[in-house]
Amino acid sequence: MFKLNTPKVLFLLLCSISSYAKDYPVHNAAELAFLNLKPGDRAIMQPGNWTNQQLVFKAKGTKEAPVTLISSDPGKIIINGNSHLLIDGQWLVVDGLNFSQGNSQKKDVITFSKDAEWCRLTNTSIVDFNPADKKQDYKWVSINGYHNRVDHCYIKGKTHQGTTLVVWVADKPNYHEIDHNFFDTRPDLGNNGGETIRIGTSTVSMNDSYTTVEDNVFYQCNGEMEVLSNKSGHNTIRNNLFYECVGTLTLREGNFAEVYGNYMIGNGVKGTGGIRIIGESHKVYYNYLQGLTGTGLKAAITIMDAIPNSELKGYMQVKNAEIKNNTIINCTEAFEVGSGKRDGRGLPPQNVTITNNLVLASDPIVYTDQPQGLKISGNILFNIKLAGDLPDGFDMKDPRLNTDATNIYQPSKRSKIGAPGLSAGQKLLFDAAGIGPAWYKNLPAIRVK
To answer: Is the pLDDT reported for residue 4 higher than 70?
Structure first.
């Protein structure tokens, strides 16, 4: 009986594809648009004038043989002026592009189309791509479609209206990945619309996205109150470093987010905030927050009051939130429950669990409103003098921690508690050079002060 040797057949198939794949040198957007690219082909950008280029990268690759748009000299070929890129197809890879010192007049700088699937933007930078008018709104990266990825990119210096990177959520989950990027400085915009990442919008916030944001660095991203704004369901935000960001990781709308393994380092900078919770069934655990000065809406962990019968763009009630095993060190205010209470916004959180958190903070917990069904237990306070009684659900004991070489608190050999943080997030503190394109060697120093 004939037996199919699957690995051998696959190897022969790949060899067959590669033998037909071609490299095409391109010198401008018109030449790129003219190509009829096939699986395995590469369009290779050549040195020259890449000013005012409306690039359209349209093709259909396969998992085994993606189609690639790549720079012949990554980082050295500068795309500027009124330029932008559309990624439109399946199994496409954009690698090594450098958008710098330009501006996009009408479109977002890099857009994944609604038909983009399994496409990837990698090893690419967008730096100071700003218009003269700061009120002009365009995004630097817009992700539509399904199963797309943005990784190892360097993004710095957005000063005008509009979120830096947006995931546009549709009527079915899109499963995008945003990982290993360095989001460098973004100054205060002075109004809403200055987020660094937003996943969804108010109108679709009850739709699921299943987007994962992991292993990124956010360095002094101060555009507005929300550094990362979650506005859809079932997203995962893990193992990121938020460093001296005057804002918060905000679960603004949508439900079922998981936020874990993140490091949020304020270094005592005024207005630095932590994690803000709104909505249902969120899980916030194993995060490490240190040196945050924010209070109220910018406390280390904020659990907000809601608007009764709120519309989607309002404030939904916090329900069934699990907040556990977080480490909060030298923050002004560790927890604020019922934050933001005022006329018209007075629906308190319901069925919130706060357990097994480790806290060194001037104010361990502040109740702006009285929650319904709060379960609080097993939390440890240490090395502080309380002005009043010990809060319910907290014990005062020495967890026997030491600071390591990175000034992060870790259990000593005598400690009876588990590691307060996750190694992946800590590794980002001193391995930031591995984030973003290889040609950026002058990344800012990342350290806990």
So the answer is: no
Q: Which two tokens stand for residue 105?
A: 């007049």
Q: Work out the end-to-end distance of the chain between its first and last CA atoms, rounded to an integer number of angstroms.
A: 70
In which element (H, E) is residue 377 found?
Answer: strand 375-377
Q: If residue 276 lies in a helix (H) or strand (E), which one and from where to where?
A: strand 275-277
- Which of these ranges, 14-28, 288-302, 303-317, 390-404, has the smallest mean pLDDT? 14-28
- Report the distance separating Cα 339 and Cα 344, nearest Å: 13
Could you report the per-residue pLDDT of 49-73, keeping only the tens digit for each?
A: 999 999 999 999 999 999 999 999 9
Which residues lie closer than 8 Å to 159 by C-beta, 6 or more apart?
130, 134, 186, 187, 189
Mean pLDDT taken over the chain: 92
Within 8 A by CB and 6+ apart from 357, the residues are 323, 324, 325, 326, 327, 328, 334, 379, 380
Band of pLDDT at residue 420, cut at 50, 70 and 90: low
What length is written for the chain?
449
- The full set of domain ranges for the chain reads 1-100+117-129, 132-150+163-449
Q: Which helix (H) or strand (E) holds 16?
A: helix 6-20
Note the Cα 423 to chain centre separation in Å. Answer: 18
Superfamily (CATH) of domain 132-150+163-449:
Single-stranded right-handed beta-helix, Pectin lyase-like (2.160.20.10)
Nearest to 228 by CA among 146, 321, 166: 166
E-strand ranges in 115-176 read: 120-122, 125-127, 141-143, 149-151, 154-156, 165-167
Return the closest-CA partner of residue 326 out of 307, 308, 303. Answer: 303
The pLDDT of residue 418 is: 64
CA dihedral 380, 384, 389, 394 (to 10 degrees): -10
Question: Can you tell me which residue has the tokens 């690639």?
Answer: 68
Predicted local distance difference test score (pLDDT) of residue 2: 40
Q: Are strands 67-71 and 275-277 parallel, antiparallel or unpaired?
A: unpaired
Return the closest-CA partner of residue 275 out of 62, 261, 267. Answer: 261
What digits encode the pLDDT tens for the residues 92-118?
A: 999 999 999 999 988 999 999 999 999
Strand partners, 44: 25, 70
Measured in degrees and rounded to the nearest 5, phi and psi for residue 312 equal: -60, -35
Tens-digit pLDDT profile for residues 255-266: 999 999 999 999
